[in-house]
């Protein structure tokens, strides 16, 4: 899935190529995304990408696992600038693919089961996480 977005670092258009494949070069690959919601933004893991034809118009859709659960903020996370996420109550939800803001690099936290850390080495993601931390 090709997603174009405006970088918050350079204000130029940038492209992400997102993958959702149970067997990508012999390994499962389910990329993560930031979704625009009515009340803000959430991180999610792609589960399935598909299209629906309605009235002759193609609507790209995504099935995701929302990572919008409550996370306990620890002093270590704050000191090191970590942005921690975890699954919410809903196992999967369906959204329009047009709600995707951009892809996100997310890694499993091996010390805390079921929790993930957002990687912010990308300058645009660093800017986005700083704005999310302030809310």
Task: Chart the SSEs and their pairings.
Layout: E1 2-6, E2 13-17, E3 20-24, E4 27-30, E5 32-37, E6 40-54, E7 57-67, H1 75-80, E8 84-85, E9 93-96, E10 100-104, E11 106-108, E12 116-118, H2 123-133
Antiparallel strand pairs: 1-2, 3-4, 5-6, 5-10, 6-7, 7-9, 8-12, 11-12
In short:
With 135 residues, the chain is mainly β.
Principal-axis shape equals globular
Which spans have pLDDT < 50 for at least 5 consecutive residues?
Answer: none
N→C terminal distance: 29 Å
**Domain module tally:** 1
**Main sheet record:** 5 strands, antiparallel
Q: Number of helix segments?
A: 2
The helix/strand class is mainly beta
Total beta strands = 12
**Rg calc:** 15 Å
Order of helices and strands: EEEEEEEHEEEEEH
Considering DSSP H and I runs of 4 or more, what fraction of the residues is helical?
A: 10-25%
Strand fraction equals over 45%
Tell me the strand order in the biggest sheet: 9-7-6-5-10
Keywords: Membrane, Transmembrane, Transmembrane helix
Transmembrane segments: 42-64
